[in-house]
Structures are given as C-alpha cells and as structure tokens.
C-alpha cells in the first residue's frame, strides 16, 4: 500500500462507532482495510449489475 489513506482523521472518527470491537486479539488499522473492502464491494455490485 502506498501509505496514503482515503479518509481524513475526522472522517475516521465519525465512522469508528460502526467498526466491530476487538475480541481478544489486536485489530488491524481500519484505514488499511477499508479501501480493500470498498473495492471488493464495488466489484461485487458491478457483477450483479452485469447479470
């Protein structure tokens, strides 16, 4: 990953209540995971639209 993030600190603070809580093991940085998750969801929606 290039080290830049899609969201600002303020935007991440607003989204924080919607992320799951840690259950025993440390969570990865949500900023690193969020772009991949959004890309996967976008690709899935495009596949659905193509059917």
Describe this structure in words.
The chain is mainly alpha-helical and 51 residues long. The chain has two helices and no strands. The termini are far apart. Helix content is 55%, strand content 0%. It has helices at 9-15, 30-50. It is extended and about 40 Å long.
Following the backbone from N to C, one meets helices and strands in this order, namely HH
Distance between the termini: 32 Å
Tally of helical segments: 2
| Strand fraction | under 5%
Give the overall pLDDT as a whole number: 79
Question: Which blocks of ≥5 consecutive residues have pLDDT under 50?
Answer: none
Shape: extended
Count of DSSP strands: 0
For the CA atoms, what is the radius of gyration? 14 Å
Largest beta-sheet details: none
Q: How much helix is in the residues?
A: 40-55%
Which structural class best describes the helix and strand composition?
Answer: mainly alpha
């Amino acid at each position: 990953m290039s080290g830049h993030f899609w969201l600002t600190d303020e935007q991440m603070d607003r989204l924080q209540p919607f992320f799951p809580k840690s259950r025993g093991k440390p969570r990865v940085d949500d900023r690193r995971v969020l772009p991949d998750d959004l890309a996967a969801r976008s690709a899935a929606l495009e596949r659905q639209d193509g059917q």
